Amino acid sequence: MAKTRAPAMSISAWQVIQSMLDGVLVTDPRGAIMAVNDSFCAVTGYERAEVIGRNPRFLHSGRQAGDFYARMWDCILRAGRWQGEIWNRRKSGELYPEWLTISAIKDARGHTLCYVGVSRDITSPKQHEERLDRLAHYDPVTGLPNRRLFHERLKSALENRSAARRLAVLFLDLDHFKEINDHWGHAAGDMFLRAVGARLRGCVRRTDTVARWAGDEFAVLLNPVSGRGDAARVARKILRLMRLPFTWHGCQTRTSVSIGGCILEGGASPERMIAKADRAMYAVKKRGRDDFQFWTRAVSLRRTSTPSHREGVARAVKPDRKHLRAHETAIRA
Asked: How far is CA 78 from CA 90, 125, 242, 251, in A?
């Protein structure tokens, strides 16, 4: 069989580097930049003359603390290589994420000749990842956290709280929202929900969470609260704000809200806290709506033989003509 031979290679290493779509940066052992390829210039916005001789520190975004770089260089010095996600800064000042690999090039004696950094701008994949994360954790109509994120935050708060720290969950249901949807349409209903979400956010602190649970239901995590009185004050504030008219193009409509609450005292799971707040809210709706109540054992006993929450709401909601006299649904509080 005839032997095959590879063709003689006259292509230089730099020609290969220049052809790469990834950005390439080469520094001397002290960290001064010796060379960069065209892709590096395209991504960062710097010309070669602007970076030669400089230390790559001018690219730092400020997002990573000093210990991040200390660990990175410790890995390079020990293993001769490091790779991971990092945020850098373009010449324009824009921050961007990249996947970076840094390798130490050594001679036969093990002395470092240079360092080579190969980077890939991952802005688009990162944005896609963030969009997917937002779709998974936030309600597309109101922009509020959804039930999944609410559950995660409640679970984290329960797991990380101190023995003396109390939490409260409020479960809210808009009264007669179906009439707004039926009268003005779902687009107006969505606008109304956004206005409700904005009012709810104005009732709580940054440490709290307001979430759209489903349909016309919302949930609030108060973290922390001093006790039942503290949570009751927030519930009363929500009731007052929701009674104020919502306006749109000079027209008004009104609504109210039914609120059930649960205070954590001792151990509890997210599911149990939410279920108790839901039961208390259902009791408010049966009693006439536009009020709040905390869960008690008596509420739980009355709930035992009642239908599911959604069935109960369907039976409880009856047309109320005063709510249909409104001329339009609100956008702004």
From this structure: 30, 31, 62, 70
